[in-house]
Amino acid sequence: MGRTIQVSGFPSSVSAELVKKFLENLTGEGTVYAIKLRKFKNGGRYYAIVQFTSTRDAEFIISLAGARLWYGTSYLTARSMDTDIVAKPRTYLHSLENITLHFGCQISKEKFSVLWKRENVSVDFGIGLRRLHFHFMYQYVEYKLQLSYENIWQIELHRPLGQTVKYLLIQLYGAPRIYEKDVPSSGDVYEDPIFNFFKDTPDDQWVRATDFTPSCRIGQSSALCLELPSGPRLPNFKENFAYYKESEGRFSLETGFPFSCNLDLVPIVGPPLDVHLPYDIIFKINALLQQGCLTGPSLDAAFYRLVDPRRINVACIEHALDKLYNLKECCYEPSTWLNEQYRKYFKSKRPPKSPMISLDAGLVYVRRVQITPCKVYFFGPEINVSNRVLRHYPNHIDNFLRVSFVDEELDKMFSTDLSPRNSATKTGLYKRVLSVLRDGIVIGNKKFEFLAFSSSQLRDNSTWMFAPSDGITAADIREWMGDFRQIRNVAKYAARLGQSFGSSTETLSVSRHEVEKIPDIEVVYGGVKYAFSDGIGKISSEFARKVASKCGCNGVTPSAFQIRYGGYKGVVAVDPTSSFKLSLRKSMCKYESDNIKLDVLAYSKFQPCFLNRQLISLLSTLGVEDQVFLKKQSKAVQQLDAILTDPLRAQEALDLMSPGENTNVLKELLMCGYKPDTEPYLSMMLQTFRASKLLELRTKSRIFIPDGRAMMGCLDETRTLEYGQVFVQFSGSRYRQFGDSPMLGGNGTKQRFIVTGSVVVAKNPCLHPGDVRVLRAVNVSELHHMVDCVVFPQKGSSSLYAFEDQEVYG
Q1: In this structure, what are the phi and psi dihedrals at residue 655, rounded to the nearest 5 degrees?
Q2: RRM domain: from which residue to which, for each copy (predicted)?
Q3: Would you give the DSSP letter of residue 483?
Q4: Which of 73, 139, 564, 774 has a Cα-to-Cα distance from 735 of 20 to 30 A?
Q5: Which of the four pLDDT bands, split at 50, 70 and 90, describes residue 665?
Q6: 347: CB partners within 8 A, 6+ apart
Q7: Is the confidence at residue 355, as pLDDT, over 80?
Q8: DSSP code of 284?
Q9: How far is the C-alpha of 445 from the C-alpha of 448, rounded, in Å?
Q10: Are 112 and 223 in contact (CB under 8 A)?
Q11: CB of 376 within 8 A of CB of 267?
């Protein structure tokens, strides 16, 4: 017998709450976990499906019903049920009731400034203290705050001598997630609380919410404090938190006041009216506040005067603020600390050097803002790869801002957080995101407004914003990008704006008369028009060498480039017979633009091949057995295990799985004779590399395929290939690959290999079974100049692939 039973025979006047009270009078308070009250189809009586917290209570009610159980004048019967209402009831490590919850900031070792408090709060500590849940009522709405382990910086239990009360102080990295209970009003028996009871409200009845307190005081808080009576027992925090300590010294609470100058996006602070600070100083102060290095109440007028460049050398200010960021603990008296730092600078008689480093061409400093449902965080300036817009407005870099919308733990926010599946209404999170995009962000004397977003930013819930300056607005920048008036589709309009924001390398200018416009290759078959040349163009050999030099290819000319040129986008492949610098097709033109700079996003080169979930799902659908994938996965894990002890395997893995500058230092250490299991730094870095690849394997099913490559797709401009044929030539690696393969082998970095025979070719992204093809690779002498590309034919009844910004696995 299980924990769930059906009790029948209740009168029509009964409710789920009355059934709960009746049963708990028999089994004890808190023993009923869930109730569903329903009416019999053939009468006026009701039955209740009841889930108890234990099997013993369910058996007890059935035994009472067998010996006549009465509800008033109604005779009740009971029987066991096969399934529970809630399959996996929540269990908590510990719970506290009637607690007073304080949100605020610690302003000294002994004082806590309270911004908002709530009494009669229940606290549930999850298993392993991974999550803490706070439940309370506020203005007739039931709220739940969920605080994750990752958002807790430190826990300190204060037991002031001579006091019966205790204070559990929890220092926070970020705010808790806020949920409000959605009370159905539809009258549906399956939702109506009159007919349903849950001890723990089901997840689908909790709706995400933003800060509901006056002036967003939860968002302005950097800590929360639980005021505990002396009686309740607490969980063992030492077992789960490295930063836990206890204190018996003085500790007191005092009333605090909001300090944020923006009451919607908090915490954002600014100087008093008589102090005028530059934007970069204000941004840095806010970053220090939001990261917990400063407390809001301590930022008084004296502090702002100490960071005023009109009074203090700006190099001293910047160096002191950077040093403040690296302190191990929060600075409760920043004015005193700054005065001490300035005295040291003046004694040395040499102003400190700026921490900013000069950047290589193609890199820029950009500031970034992350917005959560309750808080806002400032970061930077950080080094970013430049794009077309930033290069055109180099004197306005400080007016550009990258904005991301993330959850409280800085994880990705999902669509269900904005609009629940079981409701047509939008949550408070949706309104918050919309208000930021519509109204912008004010930081100091700059007001940032929405500009555009790239395709990668769209996946990450990010966007670019711009603060108008010198008569230049976000609308002016969009007008400079190109003419989008012919685009009436909103999604396409946004995508075309994003073309200019892809991370790219600026190469050379190409005048209009140096560009040839060539027709698309199209075939009509069965009344359907197929484009063989969608997104593919040509580049002359001589011009390709110049572009490769600008891209830093060190004497090697790639066979294909992924480009942006004006309103054109796609791939251009080297054509030795072309006399024009660029030959572009109509399918590559997305909008009209006067820009003549050629920007390169990527170019053909050695790239390792990995299976992913999309490709595995399609291959499995097409008949590949699961055992094949398990075998490949097992082999990939063995290869990663071997790099920790075998120097040769470590070199091979770094060269094949992760080619590029990030692993060059490790490769050089291995080539110098250092052993992976004896040199500490090398061992640590290889373990990190292995852990990263295993994480990708576990979360994304990225299985390394030694016999494969990720390549760009190109078109056979010679019309040599027949339908179903491809030409594949790849460059050799510096080391032999794992295992013996017909594709692999050879000596030297410049050796090339031509593949012949059957090959499996897949698109990335891979969404349709037709995106995976078995084709025949052939050797065509006219295409020997094409390396690290898959060359597709322009013959046949339909195109094999579109080439626009696509990656091909082979």
Answers
A1: -75, -35
A2: 3-88
A3: B
A4: 774
A5: confident
A6: none
A7: no
A8: H
A9: 10
A10: yes
A11: yes
For tokens 């529970």, what's the residue? 84
Residue 662 has pLDDT above 90, yes or no: no
Give 283-308 pLDDT, tens digit per residue.
999 999 999 999 999 999 999 999 99
Grouping H, G, I as helix, E, B as strand and the rest as coil, residue 30 is coil
How much helix, strand and coil, in percent to the nearest 5, is found in the chain? Answer: 30, 30, 40
Global confidence as pTM: 0.86
Q: Specify the 3-state DSSP secondary structure of 590.
A: coil
Residue 744 reports pLDDT greater than 60: no
User: Which range is least confidently modeled, 34-48, 395-409, 578-592?
Assistant: 34-48
Tell me the C-alpha distance between 458 and 471, whole Å. Answer: 28
Are 799 and 787 in contact by the 8 Å Cβ rule? The answer is no
pLDDT at 245: 93
How far lies 174's CA from each of 129, 135, 146, 292, 322, in Å?
17, 19, 11, 10, 21
Closest CA to 399 of 444, 361, 356, 458: 444
CA dihedral 576, 578, 581, 584 (to 10 degrees): -110
Per DSSP, which regions of 173-304 are E strands? 177-181, 196-198, 206-209, 223-228, 244-247, 252-255
pLDDT band at 747 (very low <50, low <70, confident <90, very high): very low
* Chain mean position to CA 49: 42
Distance CA 560, CA 549 (A): 14
Cβ neighbours around 269 below 10 Å, total: 20
Structure tokens at 673: 């004779």
How far apart (Å, rounded) are the C-alpha atoms in residues 604 and 610? 17
Look at the block and give the residue holding tokens 């600070």.
Answer: 277
CA 612 to chain CA centroid, nearest Å: 19
What are the beta bridge partners of residue 569?
Answer: 564
444: amino acid identity, one letter: G
Q: Would you mind telling me the total number of residues written for the chain in this entry? A: 810
- Burial grade of 159 (CB within 10 A; 0-12, 13-18, 19 or more): middle
pLDDT of residue 62: 93
- Residues 6+ away with beta carbon under 8 Å from 149: 128, 129, 130, 131, 240
3-state secondary structure 175-205: CCEEEEECCCCCCCCCCCCCCEEECCCCHHH
Closest C-alpha among 100, 105, 374, 371 to residue 213: 374
- Count other Cβ atoms within 10 Å, centred on residue 744: 17
* Nearest to 396, CA basis, from 365, 368, 437: 365
Query: pLDDT digit string (tens) for 492-551?
Result: 999 999 999 999 999 999 999 999 999 999 888 777 888 889 999 999 999 999 999 999
Instruction: Give the pLDDT of residue 804.
Output: 58
Closest CA to 290 of 441, 408, 464, 465: 408
Helices (H) and strands (E) in the chain, counts: 19, 40
SS (H, E, C) 115-132: EEEEEEEEEEECHHHCEE
Per-residue pLDDT tens digits for 161-200: 888 899 999 999 999 999 998 866 545 566 677 889 988 8
pLDDT for residue 20 is more than 90: yes
Position 413, amino acid: M
d(CA 141, CA 137): 6
- For the chain, what is the radius of gyration of the CA atoms? 33
Q: Tell the burial category of 153 from Cβ atoms under 10 Å away from its Cβ (0-12, 13-18, 19+).
A: middle
Residue range 442-468: mean pLDDT, rounded: 94
With tokens 């995101």, the residue in question is 433
Q: In the prediction, which pLDDT does 372 show?
A: 97
How many Å apart are CA 83 and CA 85, to the nearest integer? 7
Sign of dihedral through CA atoms 260, 265, 267, 270?
Answer: negative
- For residue 12 the two structure tokens come to 């029509």
